[in-house]
Amino acid sequence: MTARKRVARDAGGERTRYEDIAIGEDLGSIEWSFDDAAIARICDSDDDFHEWYAVESPYGGIIAPVLIGYPPVRMLFSRRYNVRGLFYWHEAENFAPLKPNVKYTIRGRICDKWIKREREFVQYEATCYDPQGNKVFHTRRAHALDYLTRDVPKDASGIDSGAGGRLVDTGGKS
């Protein structure tokens, strides 16, 4: 029988240790935009279709499903911390629709971290702003850093830390 081990490193380097995550740390900001093709891709991948995602909406032009904002926030977190983890929970408040070909700014920070049932968790939040500085959405997310409990040795090598850390902001180009 093979002993279980937690992943300590992957193709992206050393995985971030729980002890190295700082509550209150500024995750910085990114500029983010998307185009009509990105809306079509997320609609297809999430099986989420509405006429407002392809033709005129009451908001002046087409809008995007709210989940299009998930990857850039994850990227913001992954730029700073090399973690794979397990999704634990997500909350979001939307103030305005997301529109294609708009240059948004997303800013984030680490909110909290805790240990529950001997598993390590981290919570981060981000706010998206339009070019005029208006809030478009605010989100908080929590991840378990590993499925295995913290008493399991952390000295294995694993796969890359995920697409969220490697997403490239295309500035609206696909």
State the helix count. Answer: 2
The CATH superfamily of the domain at 6-16 and 23-34 and 68-165 turns out to be: Hotdog Thioesterase
Q: Please tell me what the overall shape is.
A: elongated
Mean pLDDT level: 89
Strand content: 35-45%
- From the alpha-carbon coordinates, what is the Rg to the nearest angstrom? 18 Å
CATH architecture of the domain at 6-16 and 23-34 and 68-165: Roll
SSE-based structural type: mainly beta
Give structural notes.
- It is a single chain.
- By secondary structure, the protein is mainly β.
- The protein has a domain at 6-16 and 23-34 and 68-165: Thiol Ester Dehydrase, Chain A, CATH 3.10.129.
- The protein is 13% helix and 35% strand.
- The protein contains two helices and eight strands, in the order βββααβββββ.
- The protein has a five-stranded antiparallel β-sheet.
- The longest helix is centred in the first third of the chain and has 11 residues, at 36-46.
- The chain is elongated and about 55 Å long.
- The protein starts with 5 loop residues before the first strand and ends in a 17-residue tail after the last strand.
- The model is unreliable at 163-174 (pLDDT under 50).
